[in-house]
Amino acid sequence: MTLTQAQEAARQARLDCGIMTPAEAAAYLGSTEGTLRSYRCRGKGPRSQKDGGRYFYRVEDLDAYRAARPR
Fold first, then answer.
1. Closest by alpha carbon to 21, among 9, 6, 36?
2. Could you read off the pLDDT of 8-52 as tens digits, one per residue?
3. Cα–Cα nearest to 55, from 45, 63, 64, 67
4. Is 3-68 assigned to CATH 3.30.420.140?
5. Can you give the pTM of this predicted structure?
6. Maximal C-alpha separation, the chain
7. Alpha helix (H) ranges present in the chain?
8. How many CB atoms lie within 10 A of CB 21?
9. Which conformational region is residue 20 in: left (phi greater than 0), alpha (psi within -120 to 50 degrees), or beta?
């Protein structure tokens, strides 16, 4: 298995568990990574989790955030 195959397998495993990277979460919300980073720093936006120095988002937290936002 090459590195890119391993990376894709890891990405798919995360998505199967309902976990997204900041880039994936930003695309899911139609936002940018910078906006999510700014929200995290200010304690706003969707709930995030930190693991080993990296941030992740759960799909259900992103859906809850999206549902709570005014249209």
1. 36
2. 888 888 888 899 999 999 999 999 999 999 999 999 999 999 988
3. 45
4. no
5. 0.82
6. 45
7. 3-16, 22-29, 33-42, 59-68
8. 16
9. beta
